[in-house]
Amino acid sequence: MKLINEIVANKDQLTAWRRDLHMHPETAFEEHRTSDFVAKTLESFGMPVHRGLAKTGVVGTLKAGKGNRAIGLRADMDALDLIELNDFGHKSKHEGKMHGCGHDGHTIMLLGAAQYLAKTKNFDGTVHFIFQPAEENLAGGKVMVDDGLFAKFPCESVFGMHNMPGIDVGKFAVRVGPMMASADMFWIKVKGVGAHGAYPHRGVDPVVIASEIVLALQTIVARNTDPLQCAVVSCCQIQAGHTTNVIPEEAMIAGTTRAFLPEVQDMIESRLKQIATGIAAAHGGSATVDYQRRYPPTINTADETEMAANAAAMVVGGDNVLRNLNPSMGAEDFAWMLREKPGSYVWIGNGAGEGSCMVHNPRYDFNDDILPIGASYWSRLVESVLPAG
Q1: How sure is the predictor about 207, in pLDDT bands with cuts at 50, 70 and 90?
Q2: Which one of 111, 224, 255, 328 is separated from 375 by 20 to 30 angstroms, measured CA to CA?
Q3: Longest dimension (CA), the chain
Q4: Which parts of the chain are beta strand (E)?
């Protein structure tokens, strides 16, 4: 690997920063301590800082040379509602909250790059360092865009990065086109007629209706989706009734759907509503569907993906830039920024093999050994996309 020596020399400080954030996790739109730390650190590098987009978002701006071009680099800051089961010294101090997805590491990798670039200024143009709240579930990226992110901080392109357990340290993964799927959520409320459990013929059983709906929804993927395309329909909650001898009035089904293509999203939503309402009506009940499109697919553009791949190759070598990994059915609200601007989202290896823990696991921890790798990647990306004259 060809890491930047100045960043490698600063690894201990980066690690200390990262572990401090890990000990003080903050969830969506409540990242006050985290954003204070980010803003003050950026200001200590000598750059102007804007605060308040999406409540707790932070944007630092660094200019060098006389160029008019500008790009954005984004890191997410929020933690998860998750009870940490690790027992190391930097374990979460906030019970029920945990940096279980590595956003603490993402924040510090971008700060490490900002520190280096502010010192060297070996580029020509403007870099906006975007620190985003509420990536988990609440689409803070969309809120930042809606609050005028790119109007206030014009960018020709925008780039994101996420750690990925299961990929070796020293490797990156990137691909043109879909990198991650959409994430839509649904709630189906089934209404029947309550009755005594001994006399089901006197009611309309919403539990039976809900059960049939759950099974029928699986045909959306099995029989309505082109086999060469990808889709997921997962029913993750069923709630009904309060006791063993009463048929309830209502049942609720909730879940998520995933797709890579907008037309598949459209089909899933349409069929889900048809199936739910049709089955309920066939049994003499009714169903209402609340279907919410939370995150669109994360789609990498071709030119920007080549830029990202080339920057990664400068750091880890071309053989360690994986170009053919399958996309993920997980979702990422960086997609909202990619709907506004061309750009690319990469995965950085967090480690593979025994002991590597997937994100959203209560025993997960970001691998501090990759902090200099990620910060070097960000720095080389800026220097190659906005080359000094």
Answers
A1: very high
A2: 328
A3: 83
A4: 49-51, 58-64, 70-76, 125-132, 157-165, 172-173, 177-180, 183-191, 195-196, 231-240, 246-247, 250-259, 286-295, 298-300, 321-322, 343-351
pLDDT tens figures, 270-295:
999 999 999 999 999 999 999 999 99
pTM above 0.90, yes or no: yes
Mean per-residue pLDDT, 107-114: 98
Which residue, 264, 262, 257, is CA-closest to 291?
257
* CA dist., res. 183 & res. 154, Å (int): 27
Two tokens, residue 200? 């089901």
Taking CA atoms, 357 is separated from 238, 343, 345, 363, in Å, by: 29, 28, 21, 7
Tokens 């909250």 found at: 97
Q: What is residue 87's predicted lDDT score, i.e. its pLDDT?
A: 95
Alpha helices in 24-171 (DSSP H): 32-44, 103-120, 140-146, 149-152
Name residue 135's amino acid. E
CA distances, 77 to each of 109, 141, 227, 244, 353 (Å): 11, 11, 37, 45, 27
Q: What does the alpha-carbon distance between residue 375 and residue 112 come to, in Å, rounded to a whole number?
A: 5
